[in-house]
Amino acid sequence: MSEASANADTELLTPKQAAAYLQTPVSTLADWRLKGTGPRFARCGGRHVRYRRQWLDTWLDSNAVTSTAEAKRLKQRDH
Predict the structure, then answer these.
(1) Within 13 Å, how many C-alpha atoms sit on residue 46's CB side?
(2) Which residue from 10, 24, 56, 77 has the highest number of Cβ atoms inside 10 Å of its Cβ?
(3) What is the pLDDT of residues 8-66, one digit of tens each?
């Protein structure tokens, strides 16, 4: 792994940056944090939420499906 790649994985992203990366509204990320269904995040200084790109990718991979039936099962699991 190159140094640039390692830095990209460990770089801290703001909710706005993470939302842009996931192509989802910032409010959706906030809702996922509240429900505990979204990607891992860290609190810096108690108030500031940050994400690592690696955490976003891991979360995406764990939510990848190959059919709508599988997506329905995943959704039921999360509720």
Answers:
(1) 0
(2) 56
(3) 667 899 999 999 999 999 999 999 999 999 999 999 988 899 999 999 999 999 989 88
Residue 29, class by beta-carbon neighbours within 10 Å (0-12 exposed, 13-18 middle, 19+ buried)? Answer: buried
Q: Which amino acid is at 12?
A: L
C-alpha–C-alpha distance, residues 53 and 3, integer Å: 15
Sequence-distant (≥ 6) Cβ neighbours of residue 27 within 8 angstroms: none
**Residues belonging to the chain:** 79
How far from the centroid of its chain's Cα atoms is residue 30's Cα? 11
This prediction's pTM: 0.77
CA distance 61 to 64: 5
CA-based torsion, 62, 30, 68, 77: positive or negative? positive
